Amino acid sequence: MAGISPEELDFAEVHDCFAIAELLAYEDLGFCEKGQAGEFIESGATELGGDLPVNTSGGLKSKGHPIGATGAGQVVEAFKQLSGKAGDRQVENPTRGLTHNVGGSGGASVIHIFEREEHCSSVTSSGRRPREKETEVSA
User: Fold this and answer.
1) DSSP states of 96-131 as a string?
2) CA 44, CA 50: separation in Å to the nearest integer?
């Protein structure tokens, strides 16, 4: 996951088109061991205030699973969380979040990891490090 471990995430929005899809996502994303998703949920880890709040937006089903717009909705929630604008759903002081979306007949999956700007590494969106500013030196 882009060199980021699940322990480094503050929240996640996962594709929960069906209850089983959400459970499988927890396991596949490494949030818990295979076969432990039920216990992971029961522990309270995925609740607001838990170790890894998941689907603070209510998830896809709470929005009617708007096919084609699900990923955009997840990104909006990530932005709101990271900018402190999620209201009653706000995760406490988040710096990094993940969105996980599935498309087609489950044959495509997209994962994004978002960070608040002050916590981003010095790599640009192109994947290159920014150039050092050249400064003139007077002799």
Assistant:
1) EEEEEEEETTTTEEEEEEEE-GGG--S--TTSSPPP
2) 6
What is the per-residue pLDDT across 63-95, written as a single tens digit (0 to 9) for each?
888 877 888 999 999 999 999 999 999 999 999
Query: What is the β-pairing status of strands 11-13 and 96-103?
Result: parallel
- Supply the DSSP symbol for 13: E
Fold of 6-119: Peroxisomal Thiolase; Chain A, domain 1 (3.40.47)
pLDDT digits (tens, 9 = 90+) for 5-30: 999 999 999 999 888 999 999 999 99
Whether the model clears a pTM of 0.85, i.e. scores above it, the answer is no
